[in-house]
Automatic annotation (TrEMBL):
Protein name: NPHS1 adhesion molecule, nephrin
Taxonomic path: Eukaryota, Metazoa, Chordata, Craniata, Vertebrata
Signal peptide coordinates: 1-22
SUPFAM superfamilies: Fibronectin type III, Immunoglobulin
Residue ranges, annotated region (Disordered): 1025-1058, 1099-1129
Length: 1241
């Protein structure tokens, strides 16, 4: 709440509403009033202000008001952090203290005392607190702190604006320390209330004296202790002063030629300083100058060497700057003094004694002219004539002529021409000559070895020629046999003659001749001459032959030619002996009379006669010249150049071996002179291009290089070499080695059992090695791969594996491996087919087939035989041939390798007609075999046989058995066992029902058990009478090792044995239920029978194409069929066999096609399978138990599950052996009605 004092609101109400009022503890008798009143106060912004207020009012509240706004009695004044009340309230001191005053504190203040019991309110007079705000900045135009460039005498406008201030500041301008009076100033409102700015403008006319000085804007205010200033520096441009040339010395313009003249040109003042340049005759000669800005002085120094041609030249210095209105110039003209640059004496100073000498002395131009005088030694000679002529550069030329008589004593004196002038008193100009007076020498002689002494060639000899007196110095000249001796210096030969220089010792002169003696020095006369004087000496030199030369009577030699060689020793001292040899072999020679020899020596000659052959080409014939006295021999040789046609050398390679796809080099070792001009290669009548081809090139030496060699390149290559003398030919065989390739391998190879046969393997290979054929037997790991009973033979490119007394176990795949050392080895597969008479399988005692004889069922009789070649089956019933034209009988025949099957299907079986003994006869060209099959009625199963223990542990035993005849119905197996000494039997059902192995668990260690095996079908069980279906065994103890089973199929085992014999009850109940349901579903099943059989046959045939192939395949198998005969034969041997490694091949003989069952769930395959009609129209029984037949061959065991090729060894559907059609797992046992079931036993 704001309380305005002008309204005089009673302060008592304010005291009642406000808490915390300050009360004065003064005596009640003290009169109320102010004992200290506030006064007007002025402070600078930021300073501290204090308004005093002293009152005598006990018990009253005291507070301050600012422009009528009450600040409150709280001494801290919370609303104004910078305000507080100072003083002792008990003494009545309520001073208002303000920290850091700013413009907001500029106001009217009054001190108020509230009403109390002792009196009314009190209000002090209003006082004003004035806040002074100094200007913070001055803004100068042009910018403060900068340098402004002005031209002297021109007027410029300058403005200066202050920042916010209170009161408005005063602005003045100061130019070079002088205040400018012509100023206009305006005061403007500032950016805030109560603030002002001042803007001042001045007109300035700078002068040259203002250059470099300050133009200052100064702002003053009561709030400032000192005025604030901003300034600019004035750069005043003005022209320089006139140039001044400072001439050295007093005589301005007078200089001496050759003097280094240094002239300084100075120009003072000017901004910028003056630019100076020197001119000579109006042409610039120097534009370099320097400035001193502090003194505003420009200086330029001209340095020049004064020359005579500078006489009369005008030198000037020019000065100006950017503000000059014109060029200022100062000049001086040169007056050059120069002496003569040269003095020349014309004429010769050499003369014979007692004759006149005439000379002339001429000077070059000089200023001023010079005088000439002559001197001979220290004696002055008088000239004959003196002359003066005008010269160059304003100078003069002086000339003086002299003639005088010379004497011997004047020899060597100095003759001088001297030039002088008053202008050149400190200098002398002279030209001198040495006077040469000529006179002859007085004596001449030679010092050297005595005459007649024998010197060996190569000896160093020193001859010295000496002479006395003579001028000029005698030129001692050496002569050899009247020819001057010179000093030849060929760069590549040693120096044999050294001719010394003329040496002088007093009046004696000498010249040395040093030489290395040679043949030409023998009896030579060496003479030294000096003018008309001469002296001589003679040398005797011994030397070997200077040259040994061999002369031939013919240059072109051919085999059979006779060559006469003559050896000539041109000259030697003493004479030499000659001898001949050829490649170290001494030759007989004939001497030839000598002839005259040079160098006054002796000559010799001998000749030899040789008969040439091609072997002599390149040989050296040597002539040796031997000096006995000198003990030295010189030799010369003649190299025989025999021209002959090409000849192949003994090291010529005639057979070159290369590897196919590699490189081959057919080298050439041939000798010919001249070298063969061409090497022509031909192969099989075709010439190879000398320029090369895609796979060959002929090298520079004639060798033939081939690459990417093939076996087609094998053969003889004819080389034809030719030169100008003839031709030669050679045959080089290229033997190309290549990896073997099998060309002939008869597959299959057939042999009758017990016979002999050769498996022939013919290859194309190079090289053909004796042991390169190897054979391997392929097949399963359990087969015997040994070839010990077979004979391996090879001859040339054909290898044979001979088999004696062929046996069936030798049939199968064989591999021919050929390795001749060139990778890779060749491998080929061949099948050995052992032909043998039919062998019908006799699965005794299971030789029965059961079927219902109510004329509604069908039965299928299976007959399978092995044999090669194909087998033909015939059937008889009770010894009478079966009429297959009868529609009730249908036969299907299958041929798969050496396994052949015949399926006889009897439709509508009648007990009266068909319960009989059927005989199947298998026949091929090698013989026949037969088996009997009894068709009987359905019955209980026969007991299983062969029950045995396969493994044993303390708590379990593994059992295996062979099932018996199932009676024509699906059978199951049950185990009955007892522990001896323990009453009661335990029963265990075998699961799955058709399993022939089972692990009996829940046993006790070290306990003897008796075990029975029962077989049952819907008609009952087999009983326990057969001894083959029971065993007694004792389980091992815990400390005994347990035996592991050799072979065990996974079986499902109960967790614990049953305590009650429930299985017979269950089987009986199941049989009754089955018999009651047959009549209900029989009609329906009969309608579906034919469709299901067709589906099964399609699946069976498709699956048969994918089964494994068996060995000893007979490739002549065939398929035949016809509706008339109601029989068919199926074979898959038309497929092309695929050869591959058979090391891991382990075939197993699967069940035949007719034994395969067809599950119900495969009916959907009917749409996808393209099979040509129904192979079986009426098939009564298809669900034969797996494994009903024993193994056909001991070496080809049959398993309980479908055999298959090892996946890791063979993946292709095309095998070496054709598949046996229709080898599938049996289907579920209940897939046919009871009356349609029947088994092949």
């Amino acid at each position: 709440m704001a309380l305005r004092t002008p309204g005089r609101v009673p302060l008592l109400l304010l005291g009642l509403l406000t808490t915390g009022l300050a009360r004065l503890p003064l005596p009640a008798s003290t009169p109320r009033g102010f004992w200290a009143l506030p006064e007007n106060l002025t402070v600078v912004e930021g300073a501290t202000a204090e308004l005093r207020c002293g009152v005598s009012a006990p018990g009253s509240a005291v507070q301050w008001a600012k422009d009528g706004l009450l600040l409150g009695p709280d001494p801290r004044i919370p609303s104004f952090p910078r305000y507080r009340l100072e003083g002792d309230p008990d003494r009545g001191e309520f001073h208002l203290h303000i920290e850091a005053c700013d413009l907001s504190d500029d106001a009217e203040y009054e001190c108020q005392v509230g009403r109390s019991e002792t009196g009314p309110e009190l209000v002090s007079p209003r006082v004003i607190l004035t806040i002074l705000v100094p200007p913070k900045v001055l803004q100068l135009t042009p910018e403060a702190g900068s340098t402004v460039t002005w031209v002297a005498g021109q007027e410029y406008v300058v403005s200066c604006v202050s920042g916010d201030a209170k009161p408005a500041p005063d602005i003045t301008f100061i130019q070079s320390g002088q205040t400018i009076s012509d100023i206009s100033a305006n005061v403007n409102v500032g950016s805030q209330e109560k603030l002002f700015t001042t803007e001042a403008t001045a007109r300035v006319t700078p002068q040259s004296s203002d250059n470099g000085k300050l133009l200052v804007c100064e702002g003053s205010s009561p709030a400032l202790d000192t005025p604030i200033r901003v300034s600019v520096t004035m750069n005043v441009l003005f022209p320089p002063g006139p140039p001044v040339i400072e001439w050295p010395g007093l005589d301005e313009g007078h200089v001496r030629a050759g003097q280094s003249l240094e002239l300084l040109c100075v120009s003072r003042g000017g901004n910028p300083p003056a630019t100076l340049q020197w001119l000579k005759n109006g042409q610039p000669v120097s534009t370099a100058w320097g400035t001193e800005h502090a003194e505003a002085v420009a200086r330029s120094m001209l340095v020049m060497i004064v020359r005579p041609e500078d006489h009369g030249a005008r030198l000037s210095c020019e000065a100006h700057n950017s503000v000059s209105t014109g060029i200022q110039e100062r000049g001086v003209t040169l007056q050059v003094t120069f002496p003569p640059s040269a003095i020349t004496i014309l004429g010769s100073a050499s003369q014979s004694e007692n004759k006149n000498v005439t000379l002339s002395c001429i000077t070059k131009s000089s200023r001023p002219r010079v005088l000439l005088r002559w001197w001979l030694g220290w004696r002055q000679l008088l000239p004959t004539e003196d002359m003066v002529m005008d010269g160059l550069h304003g100078g003069h030329i002086s000339m003086s002529n002299l003639t005088f008589l010379v004497r011997r004593e004047d020899n060597g004196l100095t003759l001088t021409c001297e030039a002088f002038s008053e202008a050149f008193t400190k200098e002398t100009f002279k030209k001198s000559l040495i006077l040469n007076v000529k006179y002859p020498a007085q004596k001449l002689w030679i010092e050297g070895p005595p005459e007649g002494q024998r010197l060996r060639a190569g000896t160093r000899v020193r001859l010295v020629c000496l002479a006395i007196g003579g001028n000029p110095d005698p030129s001692l000249t050496w002569f050899k046999d009247s020819r001057a001796v010179t000093e030849p210096r060929p760069p590549q030969e040693p120096r044999r003659v050294q001719l010394g220089s003329l040496e002088k010792s007093g009046s004696t002169f000498s010249r040395e001749l040093v030489l290395i003696t040679g043949p030409s020095d023998n009896q030579a006369k060496f003479t030294c001459k000096a003018g008309q004087l001469s002296a001589s000496t003679q040398l005797v030199v011994q030397f070997p032959p200077t040259n040994v030369t061999i002369l031939a009577n013919a240059s072109a030699l051919r085999p059979g030619d006779a060559l006469n060689l003559t050896c000539v020793s041109v000259s030697s001292n003493p004479p030499v002996n000659l001898s001949w040899d050829k490649e170290g072999e001494r030759l007989e020679s004939v001497a030839i009379p000598p002839r005259s020899a040079p160098f006054k020596g002796s000559a010799a000659a001998r000749s030899v006669l040789l008969r040439m052959s091609s072997r002599d080409h390149g040989h050296r014939v040597t002539c040796r010249a031997h000096s006995t006295e000198l003990r030295e021999t010189m030799s010369a040789f003649y190299r025989l150049n025999v021209l002959y046609p090409p000849e192949f050398l003994g090291e010529q390679v005639l057979v070159v071996t290369a590897v196919e796809q590699g490189e081959a080099l057919l080298p050439v070792s041939v000798s010919a002179n001249p070298a063969p001009e061409a090497f022509n290669w031909t192969f099989r009548g075709y010439r190879l291009s000398p320029a090369g081809g895609p796979r060959h090139r002929i090298l520079s030496g004639g060798a033939l290089q081939l690459w990417n060699v093939t076996r087609a390149d094998d053969g003889l290559y004819q080389l034809h070499c030719q030169n100008s003398e003839g031709t030669a030919e050679a045959l080089v065989r290229l033997d190309v080695h290549y990896a073997p390739t099998i060309r002939v391998l008869q597959d299959p190879t057939e042999v009758n059992i017990g016979g002999s046969v050769d498996i022939v393997c013919t290859v194309d290979a190079n090289p053909i090695l004796p042991g390169m054929f190897n054979w391997e037997r392929l097949g399963g790991e359990e087969e015997d791969h040994s070839l010990d009973d077979m004979e391996k033979m090879s001859k040339g490119s054909t290898g044979r594996l001979r088999i004696h007394h062929a046996k069936l176990d030798q049939a199968g795949a064989y591999q021919c491996i050929v390795d001749n050392g060139v990778a890779p080895p060749a491998r080929g597969l061949v099948r050995l087919v052992v032909r043998f008479a039919p062998q019908v399988e006799h699965p005794t005692p299971l030789t029965k087939v059961a079927a219902a004889g109510d004329s509604t069922s069908s039965a299928t009789l299976h007959c399978r035989a092995r044999g090669v070649p194909n087998i033909v089956f015939t059937w008889t019933k009770n010894g009478v041939a079966l009429d297959l034209q009868d529609p009730r009988y249908t036969e299907h025949t299958y041929h798969q390798g050496m396994v052949h099957s015949s399926l006889l299907t009897i439709a509508n079986v009648s007990a009266a007609q068909d319960y009989a003994l059927f005989t199947c006869t298998a026949t091929n060209p090698l013989g026949s075999d037969r088996t009997n099959i009894q068709l009987v009625s359905i019955s209980r199963p026969d007991p299983p046989t062969g029950l045995k223990v396969m493994s044993m542990t303390p708590y379990s035993m593994g059992l295996e058995w062979k099932p018996g005849f199932d009676g024509g119905l699906p059978q199951r197996f049950q185990i009955r066992y007892e522990a001896l000494g323990t009453p009661g039997f335990l029963y265990m059902d075998v699961l799955p029902p058709q399993a022939t192995t089972f692990t009996l668990t829940g046993l006790q260690p070290s306990t003897r058990y008796r075990v029975w095996l029962l077989a049952s079908n819907a008609l009952g069980d087999s009983g326990l009478m057969d001894k083959g279906s029971q065993i007694s065994v004792t389980t091992p103890g815990l400390d005994q090792p347990s035996g592991e089973p050799d072979y065990q199929l996974p079986t499902e085992q109960p967790t614990r044995p049953s305590g009650l014999p429930l299985m017979p009850v269950l089987f009986a109940a199941g049989g009754l239920l089955l018999l009651s349901n047959i009549s209900c579903v029989g009609g329906f099943l009969w309608q579906r029978r034919l469709r299901r059989l067709a589906e099964g046959i399609s699946e069976k045939t498709e699956a048969g194409s994918e089964e494994d192939r068996v060995r000893n395949e007979y490739e002549d198998s065939q398929w035949t069929g016809g509706q008339d005969t109601q029989s068919s034969m199926v074979s898959t041997t038309d497929v092309e066999p695929y050869y591959h490694s058979m090391k891991d091949f382990s075939p197993q003989l699967p069940p035949t096609l007719e034994e395969v069952s067809y599950p119900r769930g495969l009916t959907h395959l009917e749409e996808d399978m393209a099979f040509p009609g129904h192979l079986y129209d009426e098939v009564e029984r298809l669900n034969d138990p797996s494994g009903a037949w024993g193994p056909l061959y001991d070496e080809v065991p049959m398993g309980l599950c479908d055999p298959c090729w090892p996946e890791e060894t063979y993946e292709d559907t095309r095998g070496i052996y054709d598949q046996v059609a229709g080898d599938f797992d049996p289907m579920e046992t209940d897939s046919l009605p009871f009356e349609l079931r029947g088994h092949l036993v």
